[in-house]
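We emphasize that the prediction below concerns an isolated chain of 529 residues; any contacts that depend on oligomerization or on bound cofactors are therefore not represented. The input was used exactly as deposited, without trimming of termini.
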Amino acid sequence: MGWFLFAVFAFIVFYNLPTFLNFLWRQNFKKLAAGKDLTVFIVGAGFSGIGLAHTFKELGIKYYIVEKRDEVGGTWFDNHYPGVGCDVKSHLYSFSRLLNPNWSQAYSEGPEILEYLKGLAKPIRDNIKFSTTVVSATWKEDLNKWEIYLDDGSRVFADVIVSGAGLLNKPKYAKFLDAEKFKGVTFHTNRWNHDCDLKGKKVGIIGTGATAVQAIPRVAEMEVEKLVVFQRSPSWIPDRQNYHYPTWAKAMFRWCPMVMTLYRYYIFLFGELAFFMIFKLPSSTPILGKIHTFVAWLVHRNVTKHTMSVVKDPETAKKLLPDFPMGCKRITPSDSYLQAYNRENVVLETDKIERFVEGGIKTVSGTQHDMDVIVYATGFDLVGSVNSFEIKGKGGRSLAEDHGSAPRGFYSMTHHLSPNFFTMGGPGTVIGHNSVVFMGECMMSYILGALEEILKRGAKSVCLKESSMLEYTDWTQRTMKNKVFEGVRFCSSWYRNEDGINWTFWPTHLISFWWNTRRFDCDNYDFTY
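Result of the prediction step, given as a token string:
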């Protein structure tokens, strides 16, 4: 019994030690911040902005948020197409310090995630300026401050800027010949037109990425006369195996948060295991290589069998199977996408689109599909999203020009031209195996570390060294080797630019990201006093 009680005591201490140490650190930070005139300007009230604002509020840091929409939520406010949801389990796609025991299902849909964010925003709403867009930000070296112009004509100054605009904020409309000749209705999934009643209509959806996989089954259920899905290349569609949490499970999460935390750890570690089994190419080590190859083969075989068994028409099923390894393009789990092709009103078109005509779409084989509505499920302009507002850093140099077609960021967050500027969810933060919210929390900790150093040193600014940026960029491209998402040898995807450079992806597992951002490394930065 004595050993049992000791084990229980040791577990409780171990479990709470990080929280206790974090508490001590935060108390120290509060003392540093007390009486200091440090103002942080946050762009965007999505996951990043809300999470950071909660921390700043607790620590007594002066901040304010500018949000271009009239409500919080970021991408979960912008995307309201039918079936919108997250392919990461909700208990991990949420903040570790702001847990929600009441998630209705394993993979929540967009409205529930948006309600979670609205609930978190209640204590910070007074610090948010809605319906306001940042036009430009210029670093004033004589003041060691950022001069920020807003679309209402106002000008503000801030010591620090944190951009939480994200990578997916500017929809991309694929260009097609004679697109302007189409007489029907067109819109992007990111700008879904709810005033357009699809019942009895002939609808075309261009694209079969993550958004399309979620929207297509719901559109097919809207009593459309016909739904034609235009597929350039298929995606791997594992069975998502979604489920609803029973009342007793929610009660257990609510009254015993430790169980909820352990559940999060389980989901996280399972995702990390998936990275090594799917996204990393087999090891050259004989034994590990054989194990890895076998597991990857087993996963691909099972998903292939699932596709062939679910889709009734064998020819359609074959068209829905990729000829590249899983993870080269985004994996899109679903419980209803493959099933949609068993409906009589759903057609899969794999011929390339030649042009738009007045009444619909014509393919290169000469087939014309009559359409009333065409929906673009064609993703986002990633470079445009990174450059969502003009940024002029040291010496008046433009970040957009430095970025070119392959934007850079030191662990996504800092750039050698931008003192006191941090980006959350920027270049190099796309992942396909785990939760980006976890990355966001790592970034918050890193940014707080930077602010702590500024306050502790009495510095006016901190800026990444250019040599550190070059070393990091070289490291990411080297680490990208032997990954299925590295280059164009397996497939083409939105991960890479026209030159085949993958600047969007974090090149390895998330434990590595946590380890490398667990503290602010001053050696990579210059301070100005």
